[in-house]
Specification:
binds nicotinamide-adenine-dinucleotide; about 325 residues; alpha/beta
């Protein structure tokens, strides 16, 4: 019998505690939940713990990793898929292993992508408020048929492919761009195109690639200038795929006709908190909020009960595997 692991959670919320405590019932790890984010100044709170469990906006930079190593942490368990917030080289140097949850419910994010597309198009958020006030006028609510439109998907991994399959059901023509192509593309009917072709031909563009040095500000002044006038742009992937200032200019000029975001480059200072009583200091974000054709959700695409259950199960299995010193199938190197 192996000793249970002591795990401290950063940036945790009530729903994390609920799902993790339930998933841990038969495993018996000792879980401690903190709501503060992990960074250089909070890392010492991990003293006495074997592992830290972190989320998308915890800044796991080199300085943080060195404090974690100093206080005896041996494992960083990401309760998410993306790992762009972790300095992998520093972790390797410090002898700290990194594990993640590569797939917990790609359906959750793909379906949220459709929620953004359909809300922006059919303006159901505005219709909901109007009808409640007894206003049944249709002016301003006109949408368009998705059937027959061309949708460009950048990144066709787990989420991108499911999004493609759903959009195929709507009768859309699908263009795809990825650094690798799989047999699934033919099965779904995705045409492989260059980025230039995707930008110039798509009525809707949706981002599903990871944030890497190659994809940082992929959507910028130059790529926007190649897009159709009135294009719908959707980003449920990572905020920094988009240069938000260039996007604001494109919204003002009408180049972008609809913008749906679940992620934002500077979201770490905003998302997952109730800031409704405070003045938001981020002028780029507040400018984005001011457009009638922009819909922003606060990184909630993953947030289904199915996903939370899987995140808790896989994260705790990753921790158990580390404790048992067996191969870490979800290790990030
Ligand atoms: P995945 O690894 O299965 O797929 C990513 C795809 O992007 C791969 O096919 C890869 O080849 C491709 N890719 C990599 N670099 C590329 C490039 N330069 N240009 C084009 N394509 C490139 O990942 P996934 O599970 O489909 O997740 C996609 C992204 O969604 C994640 O990276 C993460 O940032 C984001 N995500 C967001 C949420 C949310 O709640 N909003 C939740 C989960 C994941």
């Amino acid at each position: 019998m192996f000793p249970a692991m002591n795990v401290v959670f950063f940036s945790s919320r009530n729903y994390d505690r609920q799902f993790f405590e339930q998933a841990n019932e038969r495993l018996g790890h000792r879980l401690h939940f903190l709501d503060v984010p992990l960074n250089e100044s909070t890392a010492s709170l991990a003293k006495g713990y074997d592992a830290v469990c972190v989320f998308v906006n915890d800044a796991v930079h080199a300085a943080t990793i060195w404090v974690l190593a100093d206080v005896g942490v041996r494992l960083i368990a990401l309760r998410c898929a993306g790992y762009n917030n972790v300095d992998l080289a520093a972790a390797a140097e410090a002898g700290i292993k990194i594990v993640r949850v590569p797939a917990y419910s790609p359906y959750s994010v793909a379906e949220h992508t459709l929620a953004l597309i359909l809300t922006l198009n059919r303006k159901t958020h505005r219709a909901f408020n109007r009808v409640r006030e007894g206003n049944f006028a249709l002016d301003g609510l006109m949408g368009f048929d998705l059937h027959g439109l061309t949708v460009g998907l950048i990144g066709l991994g787990k989420i991108g492919l499911i999004t493609a399959g759903i959009l195929k059901g709507f009768g859309c023509r699908l263009l795809g761009h990825d650094i690798q192509r799989t047999e699934e593309w033919d099965r779904i009917g995705i045409e492989s195109v260059s980025l230039d072709e995707l930008y110039s031909q798509s009525d809707i563009i949706s981002l599903h690639c990871p944030l890497t040095p190659q994809t940082y500000h992929l959507i910028n002044k130059d790529s926007l200038s190649q897009m159709k006038r009135g294009v719908m742009l959707i980003n449920t992937s990572r905020g920094a795929l988009i240069d938000a200032k260039a996007v604001i200019k494109a919204l003002k000029s009408g180049r972008i006709g609809y913008l749906g975001l679940d992620v934002y480059e500077e979201e770490a200072d905003l998302f997952f908190e109730d800031l409704s009583e405070r003045v938001i200091q981020d002028d780029v974000f507040t400018r984005l909020l001011s457009f009638p054709n922009v819909l922003i959700t606060g990184h909630q695409a993953f947030f289904t009960r199915n996903a939370l259950q899987n995140i808790a199960d896989v994260t705790l299995h990753n921790i158990t595997d580390f404790e048992k010193q067996v191969a870490l199938v979800n290790e990030v190197k």
